[in-house]
Amino acid sequence: MAKKRRKTRVIPKPLEGTRTILAPAKAPVIKGQDGSGINVACGHCGKALVVDAADATFSNIVLRCPLCGAYGELA
């Protein structure tokens, strides 16, 4: 089965306290363990932000790309 590949939708920086923002110093932001999850890339620069994560992992989460600094959400 082919892996699901998605890109984030680039958004402005959320207001303080309105969203959960994951902003680590390096990518990937989230990494699954079993190799069967989805892959998500930054919608601005294409950097891999999520590797093999369960699709249900994402709910009201914003990912900040450590490469370009863009804020993105899954559409």
Structure report:
This protein has 75 residues and is mainly β. Helix content is 0%, strand content 37%. The protein has strands at residues 5-7, 9-11, 20-22, 30-31, 38-41, 48-53, 61-64, 71-73.
Task: List strands and helices in order, with pairings.
Blueprint: E1 5-7, E2 9-11, E3 20-22, E4 30-31, E5 38-41, E6 48-53, E7 61-64, E8 71-73
Parallel strand pairs: 1-5, 3-7, 4-6
Antiparallel strand pairs: 2-8, 5-6, 7-8
Give structural attributes:
75 residues; 4-stranded mixed sheet
* Structural class by helix and strand composition: mainly beta
Strand order of the largest sheet: 1-5-6-4
- List low-pLDDT spans: none
How many β-strands, per DSSP?
8
Tertiary shape: globular
- Please report the distance between the alpha carbons of the first and last residues: 22 Å
Main β-sheet, in a few words?
4 strands, mixed
Strand fraction equals 35-45%
Mean pLDDT: 86
Radius of gyration (CA) equals 12 Å
Order of helices and strands: EEEEEEEE
> Which percent bin holds the helix content?
under 10%
Count the helices. How many? 0
